[in-house]
Structure of ubiquitinyl hydrolase 1:
Amino acid sequence: MDSIFHEKQEGSLCAQHCLNNLLQGEYFTPVDLSSIAHQLDEEERMRMAEGGMASEEYRTFLQQPSGNMDDSGFFSIQVISNALRVWGLELILFNSREYQSLMINPINEKAFICNYKEHWFTIRKLGQQWFNLNSLLTGPELISDTYLALFLAQLQQEGYSIFVIRGNLPECEAEQILGIMRVQQQQRPRLIGEEEAQTSSGSRSVALGQSEMAFGVEDEVVDEDEELKRALALSRQDIDVEDEEADLRRAIQLSMQGAVMSNKSSECGVGNVKSGSQAAGSAAREQREGQNETLTAEELRKRRQAYFDRQQQQTQTNIPQPKDTQPTGSSGSVNAGSEGDQQPKPSQ
C-alpha cells in the first residue's frame, strides 16, 4: 500500500489530485492546468469571433467568466481531457450508449474518473486489484472485484458522472509491485475531516485533562482563599456582635441611670403633687361643706317657714299644741331648726 501514490486534498485542487493519482506521480501542477484552461478559453473566443466581433453574443462571451477554471482551483472536464491527451489517454462516458453497447465488464477496464459537482477523484486498477484514490480519503481504499460494479452503480445513483479511461497508462512502481503480490487492507481509510476531528478531539481531551489538573490546583488555592475570606467574615461578624452587645450594655446602664434620676425627680414631683392635691382636696371639701351648710340653712329656713305656718293654723283653730310635741319624722328637723334659730339667719 505504501507504494501507491496518493495525493490528499489541498484547497480545491481536486482535478490536479485526480490526474496525478491516475498517472501515479506528480505530473501536473495548478500552473499546468491553468495554461490548458487559458488555451481552451482562447480557442473558444476565436470561435465566437468568427460570428463577428461586434456581435452581441461575442460581447456577452467576453463579459462572462471562464468556464474552464475559477479562482478556487476548479477545472472543467475539457481541461482534464486535454491534459490526458498529452499521454495518449481518452475519456469515454460510462453510461453513454456507445460504451454500454460494448457490454464490457467494469473489472476489465484500467481506470475510471468520477465527477460530482466540483469534485473529481480516480478509481484505478493496480496489478490485479482495484483502489479508490479519492483525495478526500486519508489513504487508498481497496475495492474488491465483486464490489466494483456495485460501487459504480452507487456513485451513479448519487449523481456522479463516470468516465472510462482508454489508452496505455504510464508505468509506475505500484503497478510492478502489486503485479506480483496482493495486498490485504485491515482497516479502511477515513475521510480527512473525520480523522482531523478525531485527532482534534483526542488533543482536546488531553488538553482538557491537563487543564483539569491545572484547574484542580487552582481550585485548591481558590478554596483556601474562600475559606480564609469566610473566616475573616465570621471574625468580623463576631466583632460586630461584641460591639453591639457592648453598645447594648452601655445603653442599659444609661437608661438605668436615667431611671434613677427620673425616680428622684418624680419623688419630688409626687411630693409637690401630693401637697397640691391635698390643698385641692381640702378646698374641695370646704366648698362641699359650704354648699352643705348653704343647703342646710336654706332647708332650715323653709322648714321654719313651714313650722310658723302650722303654728298660725293651730292658733286659728284654737287647738292647743304642746311646745315639745313635734310631728313624726321632724325631730331632727326641729332640733336642727332650734339650732338654726340660735344661729344668725344667712343674709339673703
Observations:
- The first helix runs from residue 14 to 23.
